[in-house]
Design brief:
The structure is a homodimer. Chain A has four helices and six strands, in the order αβββαββααβ. By secondary structure, chain A is of the alpha+beta class. Chain A folds into two domains: 118 residues, GMP Synthetase, Chain A, domain 3 (2-Layer Sandwich); 49 residues, no CATH class. A three-stranded antiparallel β-sheet of chain A has the order 1-2-3, with no helix packed on it. In chain A, strands 4-5 form a two-stranded antiparallel ribbon. In chain A, helix 2 crosses helix 4. Chains A and B meet through helix 1, strand 1, strand 2, strand 3 and helix 2 of A and helix 1, strand 1, strand 2, strand 3 and helix 2 of B.
């Protein structure tokens, strides 16, 4: 495992001591580990909508972000829409990209690997005959996602690959996309 | 099926005639239906990252949004982070919310139902013992997502429920989350 260079403490900006403390605390209080994440969407016009997130539940209490965060979404002009914002499927890619990248920073910190830069490109194929209802044998979603990281760090290529693999292993969004998740949609 | 009120053309801001035209065109040219959606993520610091989307591929050519769209993500303060932005899992909820809502507008337009307002709340449970590696039997992702729509429209409750059901049936993000999607993560 890579070591910090002499006299230079590793600092990726992740407080792993606090995370290790949380691990110990939640082992003894599993009820506190039950979170509820929430979002509210408002239709704007056409395929344009705005989703906001602010409150969530965790550690046995209602929690709140420092501010309300908003996400606009729309369809592009080649789908006869106004392209006011990213598409919903690109927003999912942003969720995956950010989850894996936070994990890379946290795992590197725990392994005393100093990161200098981390970036990744994501590409997801999709046959739009699915969503357009042209062919019932074509799925609506992605036919697969490829994520390619480029990482500059004080570590060997093997250690860097191991950090990325561990991030993937513990990633919430990777799991949500790779494995089935039950979704119920109702009208109040 | 609900009808538009006499003399009042239904206008939800979705050009369904163009979408029906695309359906016909892509039936004859299935290669053009193969899209590639892309995103690029840059690590900022700690668990904070920024994902941008701009270019994609579809209709047999490289395409580009009108502008580059950016999505910041971070972890909250109760995870010992800075809460600079929404969490990656909340961003996934935004993707689902916006996909289903665009579908509601499009299906309603196709069925000549005038929408007045559409909103929904989403809630997703998650046991964070998964991502913290406390219990290997706990999954990393959501244990389920519940979406609840509130829709004011010129249609019966039954017709409104049918619009939502059809949107879910054709939703790319619903499919990505509800069904397994292959994700490969590599280091260049």
């Amino acid at each position: 495992m890579a070591k910090a260079k002499a006299g230079k403490p590793v600092n990726n900006g992740v407080n792993v001591e606090a995370l290790f403390g949380a691990q110990e605390a939640l082992k003894k209080a599993p009820e506190a580990a039950k979170f509820k994440w929430r979002a509210t969407v408002e239709w704007v016009k056409g395929t344009h909508s705005r989703t906001t997130v602010e409150k969530f539940y965790g550690l046995g209490a209602e929690q709140k972000h420092k501010e309300k965060f908003a996400f606009d979404a729309d369809h592009p002009e080649i789908f006869a829409a106004e392209d006011n914002a990213a598409t919903p499927v690109e927003i999912v890619l942003a969720g995956l990209a950010s989850c894996l990248t936070a994990g890379v920073a946290a795992v590197a910190q725990a392994r005393k690997i100093q990161l200098r830069s981390v970036s990744a490109t994501l590409e997801a194929g999709m046959d739009v005959r699915g969503i357009l209802g042209i062919d019932e044998d074509v799925r609506n979603g992605f036919d697969g996602i490829k994520v390619t990281y480029k990482i500059d760090a004080d570590a060997s290529p093997e250690d860097i690959r191991a950090v990325v693999a561990q991030s993937q292993k513990r990633s919430a969004v990777y799991d949500i996309i790779a494995n089935p998740t039950n979704v119920t949609v109702e009208v109040a």
